[in-house]
Amino acid sequence: QVQLVESGGGLVQAGGSLRLSCAASGRTFSSATRGWFRQAPGKEREFVAAVIWIGGRSYYADSVKGRFTISRDLAKNTMYLQMNSLKAEDTAVYYCAAAQLGPYSDPGDYNYWGQGTQVTVSS
């Protein structure tokens, strides 16, 4: 099992920044890819970004390219999502997830999920 805990969400004005964190514990050696997803009210969960845990290669949804940056700290077993130039449409619950293989952008391919953290961007 892998346990994931997100933190760092909150309320921010449009154009502002937030950094989300995702701390992992448990059998994390089995998760080759970790990613961020988000879900707005009434919408499906969508891919935001993913990173190959050992190699570090990253992938982004077109909607966040150039604004969001995914990174990881191997020593802390923690993943981050730096979100800049936030827009009202970025408002959602953000989830971190881990997959045994990958990289994947389909949430159905991820095996473990955090509880989510709310990000609200006011316009």
Helices and strands, with pairings:
Layout lengths: L1 E6 L2 E4 L4 E9 L6 E7 L6 E7 L5 E3 L7 E6 L4 E6 L8 E8 L12 E2 L3 E6 L1
Parallel strand pairs: 2-11
Antiparallel strand pairs: 1-3, 3-8, 4-5, 4-9, 5-6, 7-8, 9-10, 9-11
Structure write-up:
The chain has 123 residues and is mainly beta. The chain has strands spanning 2-7, 10-13, 18-26, 33-39, 46-52, 58-60, 68-73, 78-83, 92-99, 112-113, 117-122. The strands form two sheets. Strands 2, 4, 5, 6, 9, 10 and 11 form a seven-stranded mixed beta sheet that branches. A four-stranded antiparallel beta sheet has the order 1-3-8-7, with no helix packed on it. It is globular, with a radius of gyration of 13 Å. The N and C termini lie far apart (40 Å). 34% of the residues are buried. The model has no long low-confidence stretch (mean pLDDT 95).
Largest sheet: 7 strands, mixed
Strand fraction equals over 45%
Query: Could you spell the SSE succession in H and E letters?
Result: EEEEEEEEEEE
Helix content: under 10%
Structural class by sheet pairing and helices: mainly beta
The DSSP helix count reads 0
Oligomer class: single chain
Distance between the termini: 40 Å
Radius of gyration: 13 Å
Quick one: how many beta strands?
11
Low-confidence stretches: none
Query: What is the 3D form?
Result: globular
Instruction: Write down the overall mean pLDDT.
Output: 95
